[in-house]
Amino acid sequence: MLKLERLRCEYMENPLGLAETRPRLGWAIASDSTNVLQSGYRVQVATSPDFSDPAWDSGEVASDESVAARYGGPGLEPRTRYFWRVRITASGGEASEWSETAWFETAMGPSEWRAVFISAETDGSWFDSKGTRLRTSFRALGKIVSARVYASALGLYELRLNGRAVGDEVLAPGWTSYGKRLLYQIYDVTELVREGDNALCATVGAGWYKGDLAGWLGRRNVYGGRTALLAQLVLRYEDGHEEIVATDGSWRASEGPVLSSEIYHGEVYDARLEDSGWDMPDYDDSSWRPASVLDRDLSTLVPRDGLPVRRHETFKPVSLIVTPKGEKVLDFGQNIAGRIRFTVKGPAGSRVVIRHAEALDSQGNFYTANLRSAKARIVYVLSGEGVEIYEPHFTYMGFRYASVDEWPGEIDSAAFEAVAIYSDMEETGSFACSSELLNKLHSNIGWGLRGNFVDIPSDCPQRDERLGWTGDAQVFIGTAAFLMGSDRFYRKWLRDLAADQSPEGGVPHVIPNVLPAYVGGDGALISPDSACGWADAATICPWTVYVCYADRDLLEEQYPSMRAWVERIRSLARDGLIWDSGFHFGDWVALDAKEGSYLGATPNDFTATAFYAKSTLLLSKAAAVLGRDEDAAGYAALYDRILEAFRSEFFSPSGRIAVRTQTACVLALDFGLAPPEHRDRVRDTLLALIKENCGHLVTGFLGTPYLCRALADSGAIDAAYSLLMREEYPSWLYQVRKGATTVWEHWDGLKPDGTMWSADMNSFNHYAYGSIGEWMHSSVAGISADESSPGYKRILFKPLPGGGLSRAEASIQTVYGLASIKWEIEDGQLKVETLVPHNATASLVPPVGGAAASAVELGSGRESFTYPWAATPSS
Ligand code: BGC
Q1: How far apart are CA 833 and CA 781, in angstroms?
Q2: What mean pLDDT do residues 69-79 have?
Q3: Residue-level pLDDT at 852
Q4: Are the CB atoms for 408 and 347 separated by under 8 Å?
């Protein structure tokens, strides 16, 4: 029987506050049959759940589209809930019933704002980071059938209605390039409002808007000096009429218990100032001052286009350690981005002081040097009134350990809980194999992702950076898009990338951009944008999202940004072909860097031209997908010219590569830059370089992601596995052996002798090297998306058993449904099991028979294959 499930609108389940005027609808097909393909669909959209008044009926549409079927009805009304359902016909003629009903609700029309930004701060608050309070009360005369709040802030906000929290997200409105795009959130508060007296209240904190940012440059007040709130509550009464309660000059303002709160520094909270009932209607706010109205253009406001940041996993301490220095340290067992919630009882005025850290030093003492200027410290002053529960408000920390420096009485571990916070993505991917160390590495990669997806893709969550470094984002996106449903997450960030691009097309190093040109640690002047491998996030990220989620709209929207970036490189490159100028981070933190330097040995002109070629190729592919034929041909031709120039610049006629580094060979192989007839020679050079390094990698940010793939795809599968399975320094599993629970920034973050890489740049939660996850999914287990039929509409199963593994498996909840592969070696046989979702197909390349092996074409459903297998796995 055919059934429809996982109904999505714009890749979200029942989204509240949609900006799209012609949203796309998607569904997955459930069926007991195999080889199911959709041949047609019919969608109905209505304003009531019984579909008595259809706003649109698509009629029977002959199409296999089940991910992005576009609404084609009349213009959608703002602030309106639409219900929708779908039914389909399969190619065999079987038809489904109507699906369950799903809904989407449109956002506010841009001209509907009655609210204005109001502030409890003054121009003198420039250096404050207080949590200030704003409130109003109002009377609802009649029965309310629906209520919504549309809210945003300059800073961060928490809303309360009649004493209760509005929504469950944290750090709203998130971080965007505020001057160009400020997000507002939409909350359904129907259950919170009541007939009669009500109070709408907020606390507003500094956040990214005005707190310290890019600590090593001492930046502050990057977007402004005064926090402010914007909120519009729309009440709809039983008789259909509406009433608006909006922020304006009649609101009242005051300070509150949040004495200071900053993203990097933690929070100081005095519970004696809580002033209970401040968020209730009958509170007497006559001692509060009037809020001031800020004159701010509202045209930059857009409904939230990313994902809310929410609380997720919680961790109880696994131990309470007393360090040699005498510090009392809680170990939560997992490095996370988040906050500590605790329960405390004690006299008024007594304090709880907690510092956060990722690691203990070689002596076992609490180690905070790598946080640099980030204080990551919580100070809580007790009110003394019974049991007090506290979790900070406008900050988060990257930590596994917490030093409890002050606590009233004996410390009880049970009083603490670490709460992971990150963007609310669906966990889509999984991986497991017969090596527990690899499984732990995979878990660490997942935690690297969670810890660095706090609204933007950040480099790290602990020190005074936590910035959207573009290079880190682009190397990790292939892994992330497998593990988590991150289409919307990247879409939001890419909009900021496009917004922050320079008029010449230059792409800043961090998005949202908060960095001016500055002098780096090596004394080099770091330009404000356009570093190879970093700025190429502009092309690599939209393309990857397209391939993984079939999001053609995103590609269309980012196309001008992609094009502008490639044109920018063209203008910088010698003869428009060899990019040999400007500042580059290069193969960042590679081990072949000169002593004390972060810059790997691979020269910039090689790396920069390699990425120029890659970006140009992706642009031409994007143009082809979008039907921009002239651009597609033009950029394909440009790509050919870059390739030719690259080969003549960096290869001798007999195929010797001019740059003898691991990363140079990796890029030449993986980007298809090595002359085809000399690929084997480049691979052999790479193998020789690995051998010269006693079988170890020395690659940095730009070579590592593709290292195993470059080896395996050029026939050196054993060498690829040998790097992956190594347990001694430097390697992925070295970190695991050293007890890592996330992925480190440096191969030598913690050295074999127990000492650490210099504290100025030593994060234990940097996902960049976690980009090996992509190879683990696509090759160790053997599942990836075919870019010619994106969104896993066509799946590539290409398992490469090796490394002594006896089994591996991976699964992904694709936009079509669940896909998986599992292989196992037993009794001289290799058994491969696959699952293809309905309305998708797959191609299985068996790992036997060498290059001549012919692929097996698969329809939807489960299949299993057995092959003779000679090699004996060791685990
Ligand atoms: C960050 C990196 C980033 C780099 C630029 C560092 O401080 O943490 O991950 O990409 O700077 O090279």
Answers
A1: 11
A2: 97
A3: 59
A4: yes
Q: Distance, CA 460 to ligand 1 centroid (Å)?
A: 9
Tell whether the model's pLDDT for residue 242 goes beyond 60. Answer: yes
The number of the ligand 1 atom at minimal distance from the alpha carbon of 761 is: 7
For residue 853, pLDDT beyond 90? no
pLDDT tens for 125-136 read 989 999 999 999
Residues 523-561 have pLDDT tens digits of: 778 899 999 999 999 999 999 999 999 999 999 999 999
What's the angle, vertex CA 810, arms to CA 435 and CA 773, rounded to 5?
70
Residue 587 near ligand 1, beta carbon < 6 Å:
no
Ligand 1 atom 5: residue of nearest CA: 585
**Ligand 1: nearest atom to the Cα of 460:** 8
Residue 387 Cα to chain centre, angstroms: 37
By annotation, the residues acting in catalysis are 465, 745
Q: Is 418 exposed, middle or buried (0-12, 13-18, 19+ CB in 10 A)?
A: buried
Tell me, what's the pLDDT at 768?
96
Residues pairing with 444 in the sheet? none
Q: Which residues pair with 170 in a beta bridge?
A: 309
Confidence of residue 520 (pLDDT cuts 50, 70, 90): confident
Q: What is the 452 CA–ligand 1 centroid distance (Å)?
A: 13
| Closest alpha carbon to 312 in 204, 168, 433, 111 | 168
- The answer to whether residue 283 scores a pLDDT higher than 60 is yes
Which of 374, 364, 377 is CA-nearest to residue 405? 377
Distance CA 846, CA 143 (A): 65
Residue 334 near residue 741, CB atoms below 8 Å: yes
CB under 8 Å, gap of 24 or more: what pairs does 90-97 form?
A: 90/2, 90/29, 90/31, 90/33, 90/36, 90/37, 90/38, 90/39, 91/36, 91/37, 91/38, 91/39, 92/33, 92/36, 94/2, 94/33, 95/2, 96/2, 96/3, 96/4, 96/29, 97/3
The CA 745 to ligand 1 mean position distance, Å, reads: 9
Distance 766 CA to ligand 1 centre (A): 9
Strand partners, 310: 169, 422
Give helix then strand counts, H and E, for the chain: 14, 48
Read off the amino acid at residue 654: S
Cβ atoms of 662 and 679 closer than 8 Å: no
- Which numbered atom of ligand 1 lies nearest the CA of 471? 10
Q: Closest Cα to atom 9, ligand 1: which residue?
A: 459
* Ligand 1 lined by 459 (C-beta under 6 Å): yes
Q: How far apart are CA 699 and CA 748, in angstroms?
A: 12
**For a pLDDT cut of 70, what percent of the chain falls above it?**
99
Between the CA of 459 and the centroid of ligand 1 the distance, in Å, is: 7
847: left (phi over 0), alpha (psi -120 to 50) or beta: alpha
Q: Tell me, what's the pLDDT at 754?
A: 84
Collapsed DSSP state (helix, strand, coil) of residue 270: strand
Task: Give me the residue label for tokens 């002033």.
Answer: 275
SS3 for 187-252, per residue?
EECCCCCCCEEEEEEEEEECHHHHCCECHHHCECCCCCCCCEEEEEEEEEECCCCEEEEECCCCCE
Specify the ligand 1 atom closest to the Cα of 589: 12
Residue with the smallest CA separation from ligand 1 atom 1 is 459
The reply to whether omega before 512 is within 30° of 0 (cis) is yes
Task: Give me the torsion for CA of 235, 238, 239, 240, rounded to 10°.
Answer: 40
C-beta of 589 in contact with ligand 1 (< 6 A): no
C-beta of 472 in contact with ligand 1 (< 6 A)? yes
β-bridge partners, 519: 525
Q: What is the largest CA-CA distance in the chain?
A: 86
Phi then psi for residue 301, to 5 deg, are -75, 130
pLDDT of 60 > 80? The answer is: yes
CB 550 within 8 A of CB 540: no
Determine which residue's CA is closest to atom 8 belonging to ligand 1. Answer: 459
